[in-house]
Amino acid sequence: GSEIAFVGRSNVGKSTLMREFTGHTFTTGKKPGVTRSPNHYDWAGADFTFTDLPGFGFMEGVEEGTREAIKTDIVQYIEEHSAEILVGVLVVDGKAVIDIIDRHSERGEVPHDVEMFHFLREVEIPTVVAVNKMDKVDDRDERLDALCDRLGLPGPWQQWRDVVAPISAKRGQIDPLREALETHLREQHRDDL
Ligand code: GDP
After folding, report:
1. How far apart are CA 183 and CA 167, in angstroms?
2. What is the pLDDT along the chain (193 residues), one digit of tens a residue?
3. What confidence score (pLDDT) does residue 77 get?
4. 192: CA distance to ligand 1 center in Å?
5. Binding pocket residue ranges, ligand 1, CB within 6 Å
6. Residues 160 and 154: beta-carbon distance below 8 Å
7. Which pLDDT score, from 0 to 100, does residue 38 have?
8. What is the complex's ipTM, to 2 decimals?
9. Atom of ligand 1 nearest to the CA of 136
10. CB atoms within 10 A of CB 119
11. Which atom of ligand 1 approaches the CA of 16 most closely?
12. How would CATH label the architecture of 2-192?
């Protein structure tokens, strides 16, 4: 069936966001790395499911090898299901994402978030970046412009409302993401006609 796949680094608030979207109260893997296999949830009234993929990147007390294996599993899942995945949602922590990206870039590495964003586009999955924890961000426009820059999207960020959705899952402020998702779903529906 059709699905919307959620990916993101550990601790970005992906579980909180899934809960907000689906209304499910499920125990989140408090121990990092616990959710190794995808979880599927129904979206009320919709004919597709939400897929919660495991968190990737640094996790306290999880070995490098395990982290790599998790990422490989995620990439493999997405490759195998690319035909069914209507939209990919990359969840990032709006307060931390720029620093994390820049730190990795300075070391000559490709940051996980940037890699995942380009990978989703490569396999032709329309992608929305859910920029979470915006309640903690003071310099909202600067932050979002910087993120667009790091993702290779020429700013200003307001030109990318279908791609960049500033939200606060914890406060239940997720309308920009709902709207971006609806835009993509509508476009795909039109393509089917
Ligand atoms: P996950 O590892 O990505 O599933 O992250 P969780 O959903 O478990 O959230 C990690 C932490 O971030 C928790 O302490 C949440 O309460 C917090 N969090 C999640 N969303 C937000 C948000 O929008 N704003 C703030 N300030 N904190 C959030």
Report:
1. 17
2. 789 999 999 999 999 998 898 776 655 544 444 455 677 776 666 677 889 999 988 888 889 899 999 999 999 999 999 999 999 999 999 999 999 999 999 999 999 999 999 999 999 999 999 999 999 999 999 999 999 999 999 989 999 999 999 999 999 999 999 999 999 998 887 665 5
3. 95
4. 36
5. 8, 10-16, 28, 55, 132-133, 135-136, 168-170
6. no
7. 73
8. 0.99
9. 26
10. 18
11. 7
12. 3-Layer(aba) Sandwich (3.40)
Distance 139 CA to ligand 1 centre (A): 20
Could you tell me where the DSSP H helices lie in the chain? 14-22, 64-81, 97-106, 112-122, 140-151, 175-192
Distance 91 CA to ligand 1 centre (A): 11
Domain ranges of the chain: 2-192
List of residues 6+ apart from 162 with CB closer than 8 A: 128, 180, 183, 184
| Ligand 1 site-directed mutation target among 170, 174, 177, most atoms within 8 Å of CB | 170
- For ligand 1, atom 24, which residue shows the shortest CA distance? 133
16, 70, 168: which to mutate for ligand 1, most atoms within 8 A of CB? Answer: 16
